[in-house]
Amino acid sequence: MCLLVIMGLNDTGKKELIALDDGYRESADTWLSVLRSLKDRGLVIAPKLAIGDGSLGFWKALPQVFPETKSQRCWQHKTLNILNNFPAALRGKVLNSLHQIWMAETKVQAQKAWDIFVRDYKDKYPNAVECLNKDSGTLLTFYDFPAEHWKSIRTTNPIESTFATVRHRAKNAKGCVSRASMLAFAFKLIQTASKRWKRVAGFERVAQVITGVKFVDGIATGKLTVQQQDIAA
């Protein structure tokens, strides 16, 4: 059994646990059931952005339920996957090259650093380049959102840091509890951890994103409507 967890962010910038379920190897059908349950429980407006690791089941299920939601792959997971294709002696240099991509000030600069990475490593380390390129459509999505949020939305760290404790405790209890009690056990651990969750940096921008303010390279663009001006104030 694996645990499926979804953390959400409301219009005040507060993080909330919105889904917790179990599944089999994070399959698409399992994630489809979880996402549909969100709609059944009232999440009728599609989330603006979904951040996740390489779980193919989740990414296959998401557009079936929330086709309008943009996708952002976790840079921490992606970085580790890429580094696995390099010898230990090169990983420091490669890590710096990857930082040049996701820490760039603009999407244009990030794409330039991306192209340099491909140029430098495609001949000797084609698997690493393939690992990067296969998610080219979802690794730079964060540039379309407020710059204050980038630290939070480039990775799944906000949920990973909480779930690490749950995973550790659940592993130790494996075989000692039922499915229902394991879910209750995980829920209580996450509920306790949630008391320490902080609002996302630049939380006042969340409402702007929800109401449709457009961001380019992290900066709001265009003329704001009266409603959006009220939110910005």
Task: Describe how the helices and strands are arranged.
Elements: E1 2-9, E2 15-23, H1 28-40, E3 49-52, H2 56-65, E4 70-73, H3 75-83, H4 91-102, H5 107-121, H6 126-133, H7 150-153, H8 157-172, H9 179-194, H10 204-210, E5 214-216, E6 219-221, H11 226-232
Parallel strand pairs: 3-4
Antiparallel strand pairs: 1-2, 5-6
Ends apart, CA distance between termini? 47 Å
Structural class: alpha+beta
Oligomer: single chain
Helix count from the secondary structure assignment: 11
CATH-level-2 architecture of the largest domain = 2-Layer Sandwich
Morphology: globular
Question: Could you name the CATH class of the largest domain?
Answer: Alpha Beta
Strand content: 5-15%
Give the strand order of the largest sheet, numbering strands 1, 2, ... along the chain: 1-2
Mean pLDDT: 87
Strand runs, count = 6
- SSE pattern: EEHEHEHHHHHHHHEEH
What is CATH's topology name of the largest domain?
Answer: Nucleotidyltransferase, domain 5
Q: Low-confidence runs (pLDDT<50, min 5 residues)?
A: none
Protein architecture, described:
The protein is α+β, with helices and mostly antiparallel strands. It has two domains: 2-74 and 156-202, Nucleotidyltransferase, domain 5 (2-Layer Sandwich), CATH 3.30.420; 75-133. The chain is built from eleven helices and six strands. The strands form three sheets. It has a two-stranded antiparallel sheet. Strand 1 (2-9) and strand 2 (15-23) form a beta hairpin. The protein is globular and about 50 Å long. The mean pLDDT is 87.
What would you say about this model in short?
This protein has eleven helices and six strands. The protein has helices at 28-40, 56-65, 75-83, 91-102, 107-121, 126-133, 150-153, 157-172, 179-194, 204-210, 226-232, and strands spanning 2-9, 15-23, 49-52, 70-73, 214-216, 219-221.
